[in-house]
Amino acid sequence: MYTKPKDEISVILAQYHIVPNYFETVGKVVKVYTNQGVFALKEANANRVYRNNLVANVRSLQDKGFRNVVPIYHTQNGDYVVEYNTKHYYLMPWIENVDSRSDENLHFQRMFTSLGKMHNRTQKEKKVDKEQLQTHFDKLTSRWSKDKEVLETFIESAESNWYMSPYELSYCTYFHKVLSAHNFAKAQLEEWYKKMKETENTRIVMNHGSLSISHFLVNERGEGVFINLENAQETTPIQDLTNYYKSSFKTYPIQQTERNNWLKMYEKNFSLREEEKLLFMSYMAYPTQFSNKISAYMKRSGAKNEKENVKNLLHSFWHMNNIEFFVSKIREEIEAAKAVDIDM
Q1: Out of 40, 98, 185, 331, which could bridge 285 as a Cys pair, Cβ 3.0 to 4.6 Å?
Q2: In DSSP terms, which residues pair with 172 in a beta bridge?
């Protein structure tokens, strides 16, 4: 903790007519104590701030009545981002995260509820660009076909050996499940593409861009707010969901229905359309890590030993299995909903 303010912080805060008593560094934020209250001063990535229009995005959310985002203060001159010694900063109120000391599952429920509200408040209809749709589909299917060639070439090579290496033996054990995930993802993508060719409009929303439980705070009144919107941008609603879930499943083997329940909390405020769910399942299920790791292994220069490679492959297998359970529950709910519609 700093008991005396440094010149740099004092000069920056002077532009807000704020005099610091003292401050401390908390993670990537400077917590500033003043007679006017407690503030958070964040050094920003200038490229992201201006490229993604951080200030405009935050103000747009607030103009749309979305209060679950931390406000950004402006200086006496009306500037929201302050440049000092080639660095860029912005100032926010300090929010004590009381939820971090409470039930973890409740914290996640609140985050996905707030995310659904943010997507709901910012949704826009956008005409489907058929040419762009075709290009995206062609590029993705072409890349996935090349990935499949890598997967199949390596299995053929491994099985032709009289004695397999530990890595090759592990991969042969996983192969059929990897191929199944690849085929499932491709089938969902093709179904999505077919649906989109018949669709006139699609939706874009304001995505957080860096969705994380560490970027969601709950104050003493139980109100949740998002912070760190430097990567926020308008795009498909599944971007936040895919990026978050893909990352969150990089762990030991788990089968938690809570993660599906978080998605349900999200959909209570922003229900995904059929085509959005198809693309979401496709992106989630696709075993990206395997083709990347196999390609790297085939080009290996000896930087990692066999044991490390086998361990990394096992982690990829765990990741794929975790996602499989999650996606299977989504698929079950879709099929159950269709069955209800048919009965009606």
Answers
A1: 185
A2: none
